[in-house]
Amino acid sequence: MRAWYSDPYEVPLPEGHRFPMGKYRLVREALLARGVLPAEALELARPLDRRTLALVHEADYLRACFEGTLDEAAQRRIGFPWSEGLLTRSLASAGGTLAAARYALAHGASGNLAGGTHHAHAGFGAGYCVFNDLAVTAAALLSEGRVERVLVVDLDVHQGDGTAAIFRGEPRVFTFSMHGEKNFPFRKQASTRDVELPDGCDDGRYLELLDAHLSEVFEASAPSLVLYQAGVDALKEDTLGRLHLTHEGLRARDRRVFDLCWSRAVPVAVTLGGGYARPIEASVDASVGTWEELRRRFA
User: Fold this and answer.
1) In the chain, what percentage of residues exceed pLDDT 70?
2) How far apart, in whole angstroms, are the C-alpha atoms of residue 100 and residue 108?
3) Fewer Cβ neighbours under 10 Å: the N or C end of the chain?
4) How far apart are CA 171 and CA 193, in angstroms?
5) In what order do the strands lie in the sheet with 193-197?
6) pTM over the 0.90 mark
7) Is 70 a residue whose pLDDT tops 90?
8) Dist. CA 88–CA 111, nearest whole Å
9) At what angle do helices 59-67 and 84-107 cross, to 10 degrees?
10) Coarse DSSP helix, strand, coil percentages of the chain, rounded to the nearest 5 percent
11) Coil, strand or helix: which one is 170?
12) Could you tell me how far CA 225 lies from the centroid of its own chain?
């Protein structure tokens, strides 16, 4: 099993910025320190090329990103100030997901220690997301004929609105999003299937709803590949989540996804997604737990 990482690509952020950019390095270091992945299983992601991004992103938006001409409103919507570092990091994050998906198709499972930038739409970025790595990966593999159908299982606490909007009307991509009803984005898009969760939703109710939908989603989508957005911001300690899942609840969530992929012989590529706990170590531990469950099932 291999994992791609992009934390060495530094993004200059203003002092006091609320996004925990350091969590990506902390997850990678924890995976190594705890023996979940050996050093030789980690590969530095390469920045994705513009032509591949153009499979889902509009030309004017790409031009503004590459030329550094995003206006202030566009940058505020993304949540990051534009910089060369942000561009390179965003390209590498997207490249990592595509590389992980290709590896998963050959070997069964893989992942990106970043990615999951599901709020980016075709013509704009949003919610700390510049390019939609999930959408780009699905579109690239479909265009190459490597897959016939893709299932995006998005269990981040925030709806995968960008992914849903990009693939609206595309029958080869099934988007399944299970997210906080009253959380960001406040203007939701229509996924192939949405499950909205009330504030304070705990392990029992969450897993009950997941069980009610997940197998049915697999049946309906008949996927050649699963892209699993394994955000850990449903954790009770998360500052942006508003749900009350425990670490064991998140592990049980992950096991359900991985068990279905394993039993149906469907390759799965995992992205890191959200995690904003204070202290951030709670999010790091939860993401490491996802990888421990992945290794337990696929190693």
Assistant:
1) 100
2) 10
3) C
4) 13
5) 42-44, 3-5, 109-112, 268-271, 225-229, 150-154, 173-180, 193-197
6) yes
7) yes
8) 19
9) 120
10) 45, 15, 40
11) coil
12) 15
